[in-house]
Write a structure and sequence with these properties.
16 strands; alpha/beta; single chain; eight-stranded mixed sheet; Purple Acid Phosphatase, chain A, domain 2; six-stranded mixed sheet
Length: about 425
């Protein structure tokens, strides 16, 4: 009996030892598999990151030759011993529907912040020498109530976000300039002043109206002009006729001559004109464009239609028999908005490379653009709005690095690229 017990104990110990050995082996196998899995996972993450960086850098190269926008901005020192080249960036209509400012509202702080909208495209704007956009809203103040179409009033935070983005100049003469009367127009100017954004087209005094707006870039003196076809039927106060620049050829010609007499090197005219939602300029636009060019304007930036219209670089014959480079985009479309009509969410960031030569002539050396799309993620609870760099987004989707937009949006964005090229009269 005692021997049997010893044998049973011996067999039990052998089983226990075998179990321990098997358990030990299994643990080692699991640990090895875990290490292999972690190595593969890390490799996959690093590989995708490298692909993402590669694609990102590919599109950053389109602006790699653009210098910081603080370099030379408002520097009045003129270098006359060599050619001077700089980049001017132009953006379309800055609109703000109620869905946009509601999306930008932070319930925890009670404040508004639109900066997330620009993250995907801010590089191109911050790295230009000077950027101009069109303001299609007012900053009339919270006390009168923020509002949507047909009378726009937007939180002041947007102005400060635009400054941080790199916007230097905004045109303010448009059909919504008087949405909240002269008081709203005047407060909008005050907000832009506090945000340190130069503005042109609306004014608080006759003296300001008669003063040409200049900006210096690397010593080059640029004059900015701005006019609108109207103010949505809102009567301009009779005692403040100076407050909004309407399209008037006599006024425009006088402003151009004043800019020339004050030795402007370049004249940029922003014009609020055309038919809304039409991708083709009308006869009035064509006729006025010829007038502006023939009187000495170098660059014409069209706004108001809310969709892109064609652009072209041309050689302009002046009255004195000389010629100069001219550029026009009849409509820049919307920069930001929550409109849903065809083509209203697709636009471009326009980049012009301009050189002033030592003989004082000015050439427009190259015209480039970044196609953008105002994306709205309806499944998100906050921060739904985002400007997409279309080419970068498409490439990341095709590479598999970022498929968050989904196949439907991917297919749509590819079609938009072709549409943009056709409208602008370019073929990439």
């Amino acid at each position: 009996m005692s021997r049997n017990q010893r044998n049973r104990r011996k067999r039990k110990n052998i089983v226990l030892d075998d179990t321990k050995k098997i358990t030990s082996i299994l643990i080692k196998v699991v640990l090895v598999l875990l290490v292999v899995f972690l190595i593969v996972a890390i490799f996959h993450i690093v590989n995708n990151w490298m692909k993402y960086r590669s694609i990102t850098n590919q599109y950053l190269e389109t602006a790699s030759n653009v210098e910081e926008n603080t370099d030379g901005l408002d520097d009045t020192t003129q270098n006359t011993t060599e050619d001077t080249t700089f980049h001017l960036t132009a953006l379309g209509d800055i609109m703000c529907h109620n869905t946009q400012y509601m999306d930008a509202y932070h319930t925890d702080t009670g404040e508004y912040d639109f900066s997330y909208v620009f993250k995907d495209v801010e590089y191109y704007i911050k790295n230009s020498n000077i950027t101009i956009a069109n303001l299609e809203t007012t900053f009339a103040g919270e006390e009168v109530g923020y509002s949507n179409y047909p009378r726009f009033n937007t939180p002041d935070a947007l102005a400060y976000n635009l400054k941080k983005l790199g916007v230097d100049v905004v045109s303010t003469a448009g059909n919504h300039s008087l949405d909240y009367g002269f008081d709203g127009l005047s407060r909008t100017i005050d907000v832009l002043d506090r945000a340190d954004i130069t503005h042109v087209g609306t004014y608080q005094t006759q003296e300001k109206r008669d003063t040409i707006v200049f900006k210096y870039v690397k010593g080059i003196k640029i004059a900015f002009l701005n006019y609108t076809y109207g103010t949505n039927g809102i009567t301009i106060p009779s005692d403040k006729s100076y407050c909004v620049n309407l399209i008037d050829k006599d006024v425009i010609k006088n402003d151009i001559e004043t800019a020339k007499s004050q030795e402007a090197d370049i004249i940029v005219a922003s014009v609020h004109w055309g038919n809304e939602y039409s991708t083709v300029p009308n006869d009035t636009q064509n006729e006025l464009a010829d007038f502006l060019f023939q009187n000495g304007v170098n660059i014409i930036l069209g706004t108001h239609p809310h969709v892109l219209q064609k652009m072209e670089k041309k050689t302009v014959a002046l009255e004195d028999g000389s010629t100069q480079d001219g550029f026009i985009i009849y409509s820049l479309g919307n920069f930001i908005s929550d409109q849903n009509a065809d083509n209203t969410r697709t636009s471009i960031i326009l980049d012009l490379q301009i050189t002033k030569h030592i003989d004082d002539s000015v050439t427009i050396d190259s015209v480039n653009y970044i196609p953008i799309y105002m994306y709205k993620n309806s499944t998100a609870s906050t921060q739904k709005m985002k400007l997409l760099d279309i080419k970068k987004t498409v490439s990341l989707y095709e590479d598999g690095s970022d498929t968050s937009i989904g196949e439907t949006m991917y297919t749509f964005l590819k079609k938009e690229l072709d549409m943009i090229s056709k409208i602008l009269n370019t073929h990439e």
